[in-house]
Design goal:
Number of domains: 1
Bound molecules: 2'-deoxycytidine-5'-monophosphate
CATH superfamily: P-loop containing nucleotide triphosphate hydrolases
Number of strands: 8
Order of helices and strands: EHEHHEEEHHEHEHHEH
Shape: globular
CATH topology: Rossmann fold
Radius of gyration: 17 Å
Helix content: 40-55%
CATH class: Alpha Beta
Length: 230
């Protein structure tokens, strides 16, 4: 796929969907092909969760307010994808730990956390030329995004992908257990009061259950090409 001509507009691509729907790999490849910046917003919620766990903070608005105010999160592009720094420390691996994964849905449901993260995400993406993945990018962060994609996949396929991603560190987790974990995260992310995971009315839904990464990437690039030409 050719890089965009310099006269084409650099748009905002919002990529939302549940855990394991293929957002991050897809978003990274699209950003790379278009020469856009890739922003994994889940990593921001994970970094705040890690800061809260390290501080032994209770998961409620007051405690998290302090954590948000004292945490500096930086997202750096790198050859392997985005690196996440918390107060200058590279925490890219630690934010994927089981403890963070089990706590992040509760932390990301809190108003003080969401408002700070959304403000930061708007600053990062405002100028366009960005592929941002998350749960509320097309609905709340950038409702004006030129292209909104909502990725879905069957629960079992998402669980299979998650286990493959985790590799040896998931050797003692069965497919049924992973399905149960994902079902619970889906429930928490979709039922929370503030900015729940939901498809924007003008988003294009793509079911990735039986698509390869390359197939989903080329479908989205075709939509992006249409939109950049206005
Ligand atoms: O994409 P992920 O699994 O790394 O996201 C971690 C959690 O962060 C997920 O359970 C929901 C939350 N999240 C969110 O609420 N809003 C976003 N824009 C991105 C992630």
């Amino acid at each position: 796929m050719p890089l965009p001509h310099s006269s084409e507009r650099r748009i905002i691509i919002a990529l939302d969907g549940p855990a394991g729907s293929g957002k991050s790999t897809t978003a990274r490849k699209i950003a790379h092909t278009l020469g856009y910046v890739y922003i994994d917003t889940g990593a921001m919620y994970r970094a705040i969760t890690l800061a809260a766990l390290r501080a032994g903070a209770a998961i409620h608005n007051d405690a998290l307010q302090t954590i948000v105010q004292t945490s500096r999160i930086e997202l750096l592009p790198s050859a392997e994808g985005q690196r996440t720094l918390l107060n200058g420390e590279d925490v890219s691996t630690e934010i994927r730990s089981r403890e963070v994964t089990e706590t992040v849905s509760s932390v990301s449901a809190l108003g003080v956390v969401r408002s700070a993260m959304v403000e930061c995400q708007r600053e990062l993406g405002n100028a366009g030329g960005v592929v941002m993945d998350g749960r509320d990018i097309g609905t709340v962060v950038f409702p004006q995004a030129e292209l909104k994609i909502f990725l879905v996949a069957s629960l079992e396929e998402r669980a299979r992908r998650r286990l493959a991603e985790l590799g040896a560190s998931a050797a003692n987790i069965t497919l049924d257990e992973m399905c149960a974990q994902l079902r619970e995260r889906d429930r928490q992310d979709s039922e929370r009061e503030i900015s729940p995971l939901t498809k924007a009315t003008d988003a294009i839904e793509i079911d990735t259950s039986s698509l390869s990464i390359d197939e989903q990437v080329s479908q989205i690039l075709a939509f992006a090409e249409e939109r950049t030409k206005g």
